[in-house]
Specification:
alpha+beta; Ubiquitin-like (UB roll); 3-stranded antiparallel sheet; 3 strands; elongated
Length: 119
């Protein structure tokens, strides 16, 4: 069931009943990873209007777990000629090298879903 389309009022699910109602909202979730706070954008939660406790739908929990498992940092060795070409392309697009590589990887993975990661 898609909870966004659920119109019936949902009572708070807290272990300490407060008789509040749950409302769906989007938050920026703050995650502490090895002493560093990481902000995860666009996390949907059900929030109680009285006790303010949050309840996380499956997809939100999955996204939080992904951020816990992967830092987003990778060490990469590439051919110097490719490195140079990427820097030139990044400058042309007024992006940093990191932004350009992110753009290219995202573009490739989103437009070639069926071939990029599947064997």
């Amino acid at each position: 069931m898609n909870m966004k389309k659920f119109s019936k009022k949902i009572r708070c699910l807290s272990e300490n009943p407060c008789n509040g109602e749950l409302h769906l909202k989007t938050i920026k979730y703050k995650l502490n990873v090895k002493g560093k706070i990481i902000a995860i954008p666009d996390i949907e939660v059900w929030e109680c209007n009285l006790c303010r406790e949050h309840f996380y739908p499956y997809e939100s929990s999955k996204k939080i777990d992904l951020y816990k498992q992967y830092s987003g940092k990778i060490m990469l060795r590439i051919n110097p000629e490719i490195h140079s070409k990427l820097v030139q392309i990044a400058k042309k697009h007024h992006r940093s090298l990191n932004q350009e590589i992110n753009y290219l990887l995202r573009k490739n993975t989103l437009t070639h879903k069926n071939t990029f990661f599947h064997h």
